[in-house]
Amino acid sequence: METSLHRQLKSYYAPNAECEEVTLGDYRIDAIDGDRLIEIQHGSLGAIRDKVRCLLEDYDVHVVKPIAVRKYLVKRKKKNGETISARFSPRRGSVFDLFEDLVHFTNVFPHPRLTLEVALTIQEEHRIAKKPRRFRGKDYRIEDRVLRSVEEQIELNTAGDLLNLIPGKLPSPFHTKDLAKAAGIQRWLAQKMAYCLRNTGAINLVGKEKNALLYEVASGDQAAA
After folding, report:
1. pTM over 0.85
2. Any idea where the DUF8091 domain is (predicted)?
């Protein structure tokens, strides 16, 4: 079922309502702006990988990946029922959350006709209380997600754009612990980030130090490809 978040983002990016949910051949496109096709993908990028690859043969495609930098959690006893709790989640998202999902999309991105946009948003997550099915299971199900605001939009076109997201300076060579420190993220996410950077040509594998793989930043021509 389509979420409110998805509907709101379609309206945010489409020039008008007539440009939303347009049929193009075998595909349903979220929005069209001139000659550009826009796909909003809150779920896995891997789920639209084949669709985007096919569309890129004939069109410019703009994929929007919304990431919640803050979530306001609203929990109710039942749909449209009494609110049990309402609070901001202590967890804060960042642009680096993209790499958890980008691992399934590196055989499509980068592409000269593709723009991948990270939309940093504040969202509401509406939950309905339920009894957990197993020990330590979730005591809720997500009913809907709602857009509160778009805080920042970051467009990525090349492998170099991915590398430029890192605010800190990397040693040469570096491993994923260095990458985690420079980006201010956990090691497991830095490992996914390294996978994406390597597969897109932004960095090269140059050796090994004990069990850690060593990388170097690719030349400007490679990263910009």
Report:
1. yes
2. 3-156
